[in-house]
Predict the 3D structure of the following.
Amino acid sequence: MHIVHGLVQNENQKTKFTNGVLGFFFKAVPDDFKFTDHGLTDYHDNFLRRMLIESKGRPRAEKKMLDLTKFVELLKYNSRWTYTGSLTTAPFSEGILWNVLKNVIPIR
């Protein structure tokens, strides 16, 4: 999964990037997967489940703010690949800062 977000321009920190992308890898695990046995929590699994439940029946045009702060903090954001790329859909804009996290997120 990847999430595209616009970068807020700051006069003190000039950047050549117009957007940033956070990319995540997921791995489907059985319903009886013991997160604690692997030194993990089920936070991400529960977060995505809640997001899915809340989006059902909601018109596609209706937008809701999504706070990924804790989601990313629990993934060791400093362990990632970063590269300059482009959007993967029209208008295929270049100058996009891609960040793909190395952590694989187990979800049920």
Notes: The first helix runs from residue 43 to 55. The mean pLDDT is 83. Strands lie at 2-6, 19-28, 80-86, 94-107.
